[in-house]
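During the no-cost extension, the postdoctoral fellow (Dr. R.K.) reprocessed legacy sequence entries with the updated structure-token encoder. One reprocessed record is reproduced below for audit purposes.
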Amino acid sequence: MKRFLLICMSAFLLMMIILSVYEREDHRTVAQKLERAMRLTRMKEYHNEDFGYTVRVPSFFEQTEDSLMEKGCCRFSFWQDSTEIVQTVFIERNQDSLTLEQTMEKYASDLHATWQQKGEGCFILSGHLFTEDGRMTSRRYYAKFVKHRKLWFVQTLAYPEDCEQAVQRLIREIHDWLVWE
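Re-encoded structure tokens follow.
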């Protein structure tokens, strides 16, 4: 009889644990969880010693080792389930000495930009990412190009379309980005 009561109590406790875990289970989508995390997270600063620029990224983004990229580049990413968000800065040489307008037109065409904005010494492009064979994906990009002499400092954000609301803080960071503060 004691053994039977012990088994029943154990089964009851196990059922209570399962129910309490189930009740606490988070049924929000990754995009919803990410939106909350972006709103609450502390931003950290990355300073590139080679070119002297600074960029702000969410504290929970992971940095790719600088040694894996070209000099002056940095890459930070978030990955959960099948959701990947990548924030990158790279330096593009202005080999052809194109003007701001010419460069904006070239990249807007190359990247199939659906939105563009010209600023003082910079421009911003946004749109869908395309595959190598020209098919539109469900991923988007937001990119700011800042001209400095014969260089373009480019900060990009690539993200799934369903996370557009979640990455608004990062889009504002990129929009307001000053290469040298």
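The chain is about 30% helix and 35% strand. The radius of gyration is 23 Å. The remaining legacy entries will be reprocessed before the final report is submitted.
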